[in-house]
Design a protein that fits this description.
The complex is a heterodimer. Chain A is built from 5 helices and 12 strands. By secondary structure, chain A is of the alpha+beta class. Chain A folds into 2 domains: 113 residues, no CATH class; 152 residues, Rod shape-determining protein MreC, domain 1 (Thrombin, subunit H). In chain A, strand 3 and strand 4 form a beta hairpin. The longest helix of chain A is centred in the N-terminal third of the chain and has 29 residues. Chain A is globular, with a radius of gyration of 22 Å. Chain B is mainly alpha-helical. Chain B has a single domain, classed as Arp2/3 complex 21 kDa subunit ARPC3 (Orthogonal Bundle). Helices cover 74% and strands 0% of the residues of chain B. In chain B, helix 1 crosses helix 3 and helix 5 packs across helix 6. Chain B is globular and about 45 Å long. The chains are: A alpha+beta, B mainly alpha. The interface between A and B is large, with 59 and 64 residues.
């Protein structure tokens, strides 16, 4: 150890000032009343991040070509996309099979994929592990509003939180503050999917003698009105059964690979219940 | 220096994910500069870098500035309290600063009403991120020290 110099009180005062100022700024700008200006301000950086993302993608593709892997990777992405689409169809079939007795529900499920959609490119990702979000290149000018639901070909991505003029921030399902009410396609268990900063866990309402099997799909239940019913969320990976627990838990493998999302679809004609 | 770091943080860094964690380039720059130039200079970098990060991150403004300032202050304490070692001090400071930075993010998020589940968060991304940043910090430190040597003489006033 060496003795601290005179710099300590000076830097302590500076730190105290910054902490006080930024703390007040956090409290002020997190209020719903300032959501509009906040989104506009955050949208200012979007054009620059879009250019950098494009450049990073080009460099990445160039390196891939140098390694003679570019084509294989593109094929792989295509196959992965097809695989995800097939998985989604399987989930739809599982859900439809369970609800076959109730034609209206099945038709409602079909209709949930018949919404008006707006395609958007991912231009940036969240800078930290706590907020798992993506920034898209569509904003208020293109009709995007806060709380709109965002999907991909594979399933649910999340919902819009901040909207700028030509960009928007989307909170993904793996974000640690994300909560989505779901049901399991075959066993019909109701649960809440909870983001854990990269993973998704499920708090499941137990039903006597009913267990969700690994591989079973979880879809949005529509309960709470935040998301429309019937969008694929993920696949049960592990189900933890505890006889004495009021809630059972499970781990969910997300339908989307949030690290490699490049294009998403915003549902334009469905808004959450107020 | 900070603007490229922020832009690369939201574009390139998430592609470098290992075990669910990715490096925080802005944190590396701020903590590395604090070890090179002292707490005062590091805190100014933290404020600037944090506000830039807040511009591209979801949520309220000031959150990342506050978290980076805490990391810089902790790094400044380490820099003053221990003899500089080319590898060990930056390595240890990088890990500690990452933990401090993320704990501030979690604490503020909890305070403003977001759902925080601490233990899974620590396990799934804070700990891997701390290891990731600790491994990269010596390189960042050496780079910034080289940069500092190339720059005109800074003010002799302590940080």
């Amino acid at each position: 150890m060496r003795p601290a110099g005179r710099a300590q009180p000076r830097s302590t005062r500076l730190f105290a000032g910054i902490a006080l100022g930024t703390g007040l700024l956090v409290l002020l700008t997190q209020t719903p009343a300032l959501a509009g200006p906040r989104g506009t301000l955050k949208g200012l950086a979007a054009p620059i991040t879009a250019v950098v993302t494009h450049a990073v993608d080009r460099v990445d593709a160039g390196l891939g070509l140098l390694q003679d892997a570019g084509r294989q990777r593109a094929d792989n992405h295509k196959l992965q996309a097809e695989n995800r689409a097939l998985k989604r169809q399987l989930a739809e079939l599982q859900a439809a099979g369970r609800e076959n007795a109730d034609l209206r529900q099945a038709l409602g499920f079909e209709r949930s994929f018949g919404h008006r959609l707006l395609a958007a490119s991912v231009i940036a990702r969240s800078p930290d592990g706590w907020t798992r979000s993506v920034t898209i290149d569509r904003g208020r000018a293109e009709g995007i509003e806060p709380s709109m639901v965002v999907v991909s070909g594979a399933g649910l991505v999340g919902r819009v939180t901040d909207v700028g003029q030509h960009s928007a921030i989307v909170q993904t399902l793996v974000d640690a503050s994300s909560r989505v009410n779901v049901y399991t396609a075959l066993s019909g268990l109701d649960a809440t999917a909870i983001g854990e900063g990269g993973l998704i866990s499920m708090a499941v309402l137990p039903k006597p003698g009913v267990v969700a099997e690994p591989g079973e799909w979880a879809l949005t239940s529509g309960i709470g009105g935040t998301y429309p019913r019937g969008i694929v969320v993920g696949q049960v990976a592990v189900f933890h059964r505890r006889d004495s627990a009021t809630l059972e838990t499970a781990e969910l493998a997300p339908a989307n690979d949030f690290g490699s999302l490049s294009t998403v679809l915003v549902i334009r004609d469905w808004m959450p219940a107020r | 220096m900070l603007i490229p770091a922020v832009l690369l943080q939201v574009t390139l860094a998430p592609n470098l994910s290992v075990a669910g964690a990715f490096p925080n380039l802005v944190l590396l720059a701020v903590v590395g500069w604090t070890l090179v130039a002292g707490a005062g200079s590091g805190l100014r970098w933290a404020l600037a870098g944090g506000l830039l990060l807040d511009l591209v991150a979801p949520g309220p403004f000031g959150l990342h500035a506050l978290a980076l300032a805490a990391a810089a202050y902790a790094a400044g304490w380490c820099q003053r309290s221990f003899h500089a070692d080319r590898l060990l001090l930056p390595f240890a400071t990088g890990g500690l600063a990452t933990v401090g930075y993320n704990l501030v993010l979690l604490g503020v998020a909890d305070t403003i009403g977001q759902n925080v589940v601490l233990l899974p968060a620590l396990q799934s991304w804070v700990a891997p991120a701390a290891v990731y940043d600790a491994v990269l910090m010596p390189a960042a430190f050496l780079l910034l020290r080289g940069l500092d040597a190339c720059l005109p003489q800074r003010s002799a006033a302590p940080g």
